[in-house]
Amino acid sequence: MRRLLLMTATLPLALFVVGGLTTAEARDWRMIKDGSTLAFTFRQMGSAVRGRFDDFTTDITFAPDDLDDASVTTEIAIDSVDTGNAERDAGIVGEDWFDTATFPTARFESTDFEHQGGDTYRVTGELTVRDITEVVELPMTIDIDGDRATATGSIELDRRSFEVGRGDWATDTAVGYDVVLEIEVVAEAAD
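^ that's the sequence the OP posted. Answer follows.
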């Protein structure tokens, strides 16, 4: 009887402790447009050119202790490109480059999050540009401070993988093949 009373008394405590050890559920985050940037750098005639996309949205579900349910989806309006040169921007949205009349958006959709230690993660996902989808791995640093989070990362892409730069632009004579994409997303908890 004494053993039964001891078990009965300790069962709620054990459930509380075990319940406290369960991982936090992934939560939804809302991107804060001011402070979030999607920038890129490429080489044109040997000089670095920096630009950005002004119109993009990101849907985020994330908690460090629930990576199985973590996800991120980003939609980029390609015609929001800004390299500081209107003539170059008009060319970028044209047929030989992104052909926004046919392919107005690019999309990234995560398929896996892997913790790399500390605040660093590797986010694997599918990047679709010009209706061509490639699997990419994006190293990210994700810093969460209460109900605010900042995710930063960069990745080098080869524009040829997405058939960006056709015709006279197919070689790297004027514009290099490599493009470095830099991401900073500031978000707040949606719940």
